[in-house]
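INFO  loader      accepted 1 record
INFO  loader      residues=272
INFO  predictor   begin
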Amino acid sequence: MSELAVQENHYTMEEIAAQLGAASQSGPTIPTLKMNYEPDDAPMGAFFLKTGQDHVYATENVRIRAFSNHIQYQHWDDVDGLVNKSLLIKNQREEARDMLGGFMCGMPTYEQSIQMSPEEKEKYKGMDRYRVIRGLITYTGTTSQGQEVTIENQPFKLETKRKNYGPFYHDVMKRLPNGMNLWDFESILSTDKKKNSYGKTFYVMRFNPQFANPLPMDQMTYDSLAYVTKLVTDENARINQAYKEALNIEREVGEAATIVDKVEQALDADVA
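INFO  predictor   done
INFO  writer      dumping tokens
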């Protein structure tokens, strides 16, 4: 099967693994799909892949072929970066265990949050629920220097939150025809320009699924799906391990505290 991938698509299995971020923790990772908020670089709201190099921006005919759709809770702060994250789950009925031995990174439910004061909500700053999508992206765009570049079947990762959390579900998943898989079609991206209550402009990513134009299951698609599956499985295994280790530490600390209490009580009894 890997020989067929090389012959048809000019990718070796090692190249696919590297591009999908599955080869090693220190190797290449999947570029993140973003929307531009720097007007000096490209039009506001333009799509680009965050590669660490000269980004390629496009505002139209950006096509993604999604392979996975998960929910993940994450906690970030301005000092340490990533503080905690949960398992990648398929729906909110699943248990979102996190790396610190808790659930949902300690984030309150929507029902709890709407009853909180602004001061109480401040405690949970940096905690968000994300929709995490992985797949392939194809588009033609231009760099900030004006050079035209075509990107074809580039692995990508998309993490959306807040106002951008829901559109993929409503635009794609809710309308997915019976018997069709997520990777059987492409979606064309667009943006809705919005303003928040402070008058600040933001963009909401929208998806136009091409259900009427199904794509074939070729060798590269199969291999890429296999690697995305492994990537998700491995990440969840690491988070589960961290969850168990955190619980063990918590239990050991609790047991040590109990021993200390008993010793102190015994000493107090002796003094008395």
